[in-house]
Each structure stands twice: as structure tokens, then as C-alpha cells.
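Forum: Protein Structure Q&A
Topic: Joint prediction for protein chains with partners

I've read a bunch of threads here and the consensus seems to be that you should model interacting components together rather than docking separate models afterwards. I'd like to see that in practice. Below is the full input, 567 residues plus whatever partners are listed. Could one of the regulars post the assembled result?
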Amino acid sequence: MTAEAPPAATRPARPRRSPWGIAALLVFAAITWWAASEEFGIGFDVIQLVTNLTRGSQIMGEFFPPNWDYLPRTYGPMLETFKMAVIASALGCGVALFISFLASRVTTPNPPTYLVSRSVLNVIRALPDLLYALIFVAAVGVGPLPGILALFFFNVGVVVKLLSETIDGVDTGPIEAARATGANRTQTVRWAVVPQVLPNYVAYSLYVFELNIRASAVIGIVGAGGIGNNINTERKFFNYDNLVVILIEIFVFVVIIELISIWLRRRLV
Amino acid sequence: MTAATRSAPARPTRPSTRNRWLATLATLALVVWAMATTGIDFERILRLPEGIGLLFYRMFLETGPEWSFLPNAIEGMLQSIQIAWIGTIIGAVISLPLGLLGARNVSGIFGSNVMRQILNAIRAVPEVILAVVVFIPMVGIGGAASAYAGTLAIGVHSIGTLGKLTAEVVEGIDPGPVEAARAAGGNTLQVQRWGVIPQVMPEIIAFWLYRFEINIRASAILGVVGAGGIGTSLEQAMTFSRFPRAGLIIIVIIVATILVDTASGWLRRRIIEGSTARIEAGDTEGLGSPLRMDSDAG
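Posted by a regular:
Agreed with the consensus. Here's the joint model:
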């Protein structure tokens, strides 16, 4: 045994935990404690939750069996919901197409215009759909009109954000080519930018339409027309067996629209 | 003059635009039909700018927003943020294992399909509907119970959206570490813990933060249907036509939302850029595709 045993390879030192990670964990724990505590927050308590749920299961019993006789009375409102989504998507996406070019640095090199459109967009996006509905119901009264308006603003916010980000990322080659042939700003956008983003635009529009079907079911609760109106009425009278019918109906409808939209998107893009 | 005799190359035929025209026409027809049959009279549309202008005037200009309500509004907004925070945590904790099960490379084609359908089903029902139809009847209304109902509605809905995104991220991982973990004798759980989780965590945490931003908007309005947070005050202000107060509440919602968005967006960028290895590999797709990020913004 002349040969000495080779020294065991030393294990590499473990990388040290980043102080940022530890700080982030602490902040996370602090916020969670604050949010869940009885004193400062919503008093979230898992044990109480379980008791609540067991008590709730008794109420859940009233949901079944669903009252299917109610179903035919929901067809009209459901159709209204569908129409609201169609109109709001068409108008919202149409307007958004033009605003998107103002909100992208590629097509709007003028900083003030760009900054103003971005800020307006941020404010539009900060308000949720139901809040718009609430405002417009107060402004123009109940019915599908405030609903369409609410969805319209919501759609402009979503599409402009998605589309302007897409425009930010287009290939600048065609833009230079168009400019070299003497095209003005509008012509450049029309022939060099629009063809590049059109497939995305169509996809975003379909996506927004899907969101609208779901959202227009919701905004009816505050009086903006469609199937949400029925939800509001039935819940006031504690007709849980009717509510379940509406819930199932919305669910089926949303799934069908989603399937159609996915199929279309695959064909178009 | 040999050049003149050379015939010009034939122009390529224009690609057919028939399908595009058909699609455009069909869409137009649908829109016209919807507009014609919704039964909105023209007169109301004409009165629209006036109505909106008047409401805006009453909310913000006539007497100015009701600033004395500010402490209450901030308190309500904080409760909304707390509801969104706890709801997002519920969604994140439950969606992580479900998302893993929904990934084809973890649970096989059959298992992942079943889980994906379950997640889709959860996702299809909006928070507000969940709150109104399921959770408010279950846990009751008023005080702490309202906040509970809102939190649960947001949590359950987030399970659906986060689970789907998690599954998509997991399906895009590098199979190397998974094989290595398996070769080293790791059991199923250990393979997930050491082969999958470290690869997907930065992106998934970014999704959680993004979901939190969306959930703040959701929780701000849940109060309108009686599920806690600032929406309750807003609904009351609107019902009793206290427009200056409603104006103030709207300002608070906008400012708070933009503040949280900014902070969370900064944090998300840090988390994603922190994982430099993935960015070098060009794998920023999870955040690069805006459509995926915005999945279910409603």
C-alpha cells in the first residue's frame, strides 16, 4: 500500500442565500399576518372557515335539485348578454386599433402624445368592469346601454395594452422601407405596421369577446342588462335552485364560446 | 437593344382574400344584427354625453370629491387589498399541486387532460358570480363574513387561472434535471421538488404577483355585491346619490390600483431578470407573450 489514498473531493460550498430572498420572505410573512389578523385585517381563520363551510353545506342543500323549469325564462336575457358582448367588442376593438398606435413608441415618436395616451390608458385600465357598469347605470339608467358602455371601456383598456405592446415589438425593416418610398406617417402605419400586427389584433379581439361574455353576465347584477339581471332578482328572493340553473347555463355558454374562439384563433393566426 | 426584347417577369398572382372578406362580412352582419335587435332607442344614445358629463360634474367638480371621507375610503381599500392578498395566497397554494398534475410531462396525457378540464371549469365562473351564487349564501353577509365570502370567491377563481398557467410553464421545462433527479434515485415527490420546482418557480411567482394585481381590481368591486372591501361604500354612495363621495372612492381605487401595479410590476421584473440563466437561454416566453399573461384579465 504505497499509493496514498486520494483525498476525497471537497464538496463545493453551498451558495449563500440571497439576503433579498430572506427580506422578501419576511415582507411576505408580515403582509400576510397583517391581512389575515383579526385586529387589522379580515380575520381569516382556517378553523372558523371549516365551521362556516359545514354550516354552509346545509344552505348548499337548497341549491339542489336545480329548478330546470326556470331555464326557458333565461334564454332572452342570455341572448341579450350575447348581443351586448358582440356590440361592445366590435366598438371597443375598433376604437382600440387607432389608440394603440398612439400608445406605442414605434408609431408615435412624439413623447407628449405617447405619454398622455399611456397615462389615460392606465387610468382606464385601473377601473374594473363592474365599476364602469355602476357608473354608467347612474349616468344613463338601467338596461343594456350602460352595460355596453362599461364593456366598451374595459375592452379599449385591454386591447390597447396588448396591441400597443405588440406594436412596440414589430420589425422596423418594413417601416424604414415604407418611409424610404416616401410614405407619410399614416401610410407607413397602414402598409408597414398594420399587416404585421393584424393576426395578433384579431386574436386579441376574439379573446376580449370571450372575456365580455363572462363580464356581461356579471355587470347585469348592478342593473346593466343581460343575464346578470336575473341573478340579482333570484338572489334577492333566495331562489337558490334557480340561481344554480343560471350558473350552469353561464358556464356552458362560456365554454362553448371559448371552444369556438380557440378554433377560430388557430385558423387565423 | 437586346434588353428591350426580354420579357418582364410575370407578376406573382395576388393571394386570395376571399376568406378574409367572408370573415369580415360575417362579423359585420353579426354586429349589425346585435345592434338592430338590442332595442336601444336612438334618443338615449344622444342623451349619453349629457348624462355622463352631468355625473362627472357632480362627482368631481360641483363640490369637489368628499375629502372628509378619505380615511374611511382608505380603510375600505386596505380591506380590499387584504382580501386580494389572502385570496391570491389561497389560489397559489392550491393551484401549485393542481398545476403540476395538469402538466403532461408530470402526470401523463390522460391525467393532465382531466386536471386541465377541472381547472377550466373553475376558471369559467367569474369571481362575482361565485361570490353571489355560492359564497355569500354559504358564509353569510355583513362584517367579517362579507370579507370571507370575497376572499373565498377570489381564491377559488384564482385556482383555475393560476393552475392553468402553472401547468403551461411546467410543460415547457428542460427535461434534463428531471431525468437527473430520477437517475439519482429520487421518488416522484423528490423529482418534482428538485427537478421541476426550481426551474419553474421564478415564472410562477411572477404569475402569482400578476394575479394579485388582477385580484385587487376584483376585490375592489366585490363589495358592490356585498362581499367586503371598498366596493360596499361605493355601492352605498351610488344608491343614495352621494356622488362626491363616490367620486372620492373612485379616485382612491384608481390611485391604489396604479400604486400596487407599479410596485408589483417592478418586483416581477426583478424576479424574472434575477433568473439570468433562463433569460440567457431565451426562455422568457412566459412573460413575453402578453396574451398569456393577461389570461383572464377579467
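The CA atoms of residues 69 and 261 of chain A lie 30 Å apart.
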